[in-house]
């Protein structure tokens, strides 16, 4: 099934509807329909399971409002369309799913209600529709969109895979709609990071900026072959933990996990930086973390106050690294994508966080990534930090890191840049995988420093400047003014910190004290 064709067909129909204004509303319109379609498919699985166990399954959605009972067009002329369909969606479906009682066609329908005892597999419907809207004003066009969505059979393995691609297309549209700081992480990259972290069944895998669930579904796919029994299936049901602040990615992530047979998705709609780190308990920690936190954004003082003073930063990427430190279990493993600014920054918070990674964690690997991985949505250069919450064998006193390896992933042969038509593939990470198990320094006149190892003390002596194994200089790239300004401020802060340190040493040597 041609994924791009499905999205384009839906978008073209919605562009003709007077009620929809712009990409953001088009995406919201698509997502509530996809959710109901996926949820109905999942309910078929739950119904069959209840039947096998000689139990009765009762949907939280009233019978007339279940997707199967109003959205399917049997081509017999009986399917709702036009004003009838619009009236049904606006005056029955949405009010009831938001909790209001209605009378439709003379029949009373109770609004859905949840309490503390409601299973999450059911309460997720209320959570999902709490902040959603129905924008379309043309019932005939609405019917056309619903019919296209019904072409996808989510109980078919190939179509389930297709829906993952649809998610990617929707998220890319989200970015185009101006959601700064959120970048779709290529599936090849999430799959690679998960493979290197090697999550085991029985462990918990967390992503505290889970977006549409890319890392979580990569982890589920990786652990799926380990399921051999009913007990194993129970373990995978509780294997992933997510948090997402923005409503639309949150909705997409819930739907995505339902599609991966997770009956009660453990994804919370919240700001993961909004909790004071001193309040985290052992039960809030996870065994494995894979994340691509938003960067380039800034945070207010109220958020920064949730962290120790040494870690307080206006840069979100810094705070997310600090957050991970408090949410990774002893012996846990992490792979997190961070921007270049974190590597070369030596200002107060960045340096304190990096020194903490060397002293209290085993920061064993830093992978430098090609700049075009997130193109065309951002030109920010990125890296992957791999670290464990344990002491490395042979680490010297005062450190849990013995040594940190740097590796530069160059563009594959035949590629100048990654793009929509030539995206990153998992095969492109094979050079890292080969090197990972047989680590050697790779240094040459032509390639420069491609791989190099530093002791923790050496990195500390470098003022925690992790900007090692750089890419060879290319032709100067013309960046957006906002990106140029951001890079300028990061480099200026790093330079100011070095100057301040040098001046402090001179003052100490001369015995001068300045008020």
Key structural traits:
12 strands; ten-stranded mixed β-sheet; 13% strand; alpha/beta; 515 residues; 18 helices; two-stranded antiparallel ribbon
Describe this structure in a few short sentences.
This protein is an alpha/beta fold and 515 residues long.
What does this structure look like?
The relative contact order is 0.08. By secondary structure, the chain is of the alpha/beta class. The radius of gyration is 25 Å and the shape is elongated. The protein has 18 helices and twelve strands. Helices cover 43% and strands 13% of the residues. It starts with a helix and ends in a 5-residue tail after the last helix.
Query: From the helix content, strand content and strand pairing, which structural class follows?
Result: alpha/beta
Which whole number gives the mean pLDDT?
88
Helix content: 40-55%
Number of helices: 18
Q: Beta-strand level of the residues, as a percent range?
A: 5-15%
- Give the CA-based shape: elongated
The rounded Rg comes to: 25 Å
Major β-sheet profile:
10 strands, mixed
Strand order of the largest sheet: 5-4-3-6-7-9-8-10-12-11
Number of DSSP strand runs: 12
Low-confidence stretches: 177-181
Task: Furnish the topology, listing elements before pairings.
Blueprint: H1 3-15, H2 23-52, H3 67-70, H4 82-97, E1 102-104, E2 107-109, H5 120-129, H6 139-149, H7 157-176, H8 187-197, E3 205-207, H9 214-223, H10 230-237, E4 240-244, H11 247-259, E5 267-269, E6 286-291, H12 301-304, H13 316-327, E7 328-339, H14 340-344, H15 348-360, E8 362-368, E9 382-388, E10 403-408, H16 430-436, E11 442-444, E12 448-455, H17 456-461, H18 481-510
Parallel strand pairs: 3-4, 3-6, 4-5, 6-7, 8-10
Antiparallel strand pairs: 1-2, 7-9, 8-9, 10-12, 11-12
